[in-house]
Amino acid sequence: MQLSGETRISVNVQQISSRFQSMQVAAKEILKKCEQAVGDHRLYLDKYNQCASWLTAAQDKFATTCTGDGDQDDLTTIEQKIKVLEQILTEQQQGTSMYNRVQEMGEKLYATTAVEGRETVRIQMQELQTAMESFYDNVASKEREQQAKRSKYNFVPPQVLLFNLICNFLLKISIPTGGSVSSRPAILCANG
Prior knowledge:
By secondary structure, this protein is an all-alpha fold. The chain is built from 6 helices and no strands.
């Protein structure tokens, strides 16, 4: 049985229409995946920039705290520096959380990113992690240094304590101003 020209054209049109619809559905799925990948990249960049900005602000706070750092700092200055450094250290958990979100988003990108892009994301995450670890090592080191300075202020040598005790004792007793030098020990012993 031979198909007429119109029947063949009709069959060909149906095949072409069916293929077009299949391609259209496939194109829509590909477009949806591309839009999702672009959204994931934007979210990664947002989380990365948020974490990097937070780290920069913390580094600035640290730099400001360490400005004018010297051996001649008084106890009040040392106490203020310790307070700020301890505050920065308490924020470490927040920074680690932010970095973990960046890493999570970065790893999610690997499936939809070209090799060069994956390498770029991996390097960005590695540099951010290294910067955070180095920063918190520096903060902890500076905080220990300030604690050591504070303990030097809080340490009072025994000679100073003895001197203060004697001075306080002498202030409590009344020493007459009259008399000879040789009679003063007897007066001190009588009052003691």
